[in-house]
Amino acid sequence: MIDVKKITSSEQKAQAFEIRKNVFVIEQVVDPSEEYDDDDEKCTHFIAYVDGVPAGTARWRFKDKGIIKLERFAVEKPFRGTGVGASLVKAVLSDLPYAEKVMMHAQLHAVPFYAKLGFETYGPQFDECGIMHYAMKLVNR
């Protein structure tokens, strides 16, 4: 069973940061100084559990007036393809206040996944932390 929760405790936040470390810092070799930033204190964070085991995480923040950015979607390798990512996206979207634009930076391999959930790419590909991305925006909310 997948259970997505808004993070409310330091224990949950530590679990989410551990997932981010495993996925981004270790697996994708992102510099920790790039992965953890000042926005962590301003964001609303989520954690997904599968049968009580921490499996995925995400966060959202206000980027500019009228723009919300979804960020740091990470799912532990054993839980990929099980619905954890989609559950995280749905939980985050259901938590958002009104915004003129909801956007994210998606790694190339994840673009089709986010497209199935209502996002579309805009602009050119770009490098972020040594990984190619597209900017994506939510089309219908």
What's the arrangement of secondary structure elements?
Blueprint: E1 2-6, H1 10-27, H2 32-35, E2 44-50, E3 53-64, E4 67-75, H3 84-95, E5 101-107, H4 111-116, E6 119-128, E7 131-138
Parallel strand pairs: 4-5
Antiparallel strand pairs: 1-2, 2-3, 3-4, 5-7, 6-7
Explain what the structure shows.
- The protein has one domain (2-100): Gcn5-related N-acetyltransferase (GNAT) (Aminopeptidase), CATH 3.40.630.
- Helices cover 28% and strands 41% of the residues.
- The protein contains four helices and seven strands; from the N terminus they run βααβββαβαββ.
- The protein has helices at residues 10-27, 32-35, 84-95, 111-116, and strands spanning 2-6, 44-50, 53-64, 67-75, 101-107, 119-128, 131-138.
- The chain has a seven-stranded mixed β-sheet, sandwiched between helices.
- Strand 2 and strand 3 form a beta hairpin.
- The longest helix is centred in the first third of the chain and has 18 residues, at 10-27.
- It is globular and about 35 Å long.
- The two termini are 26 Å apart.
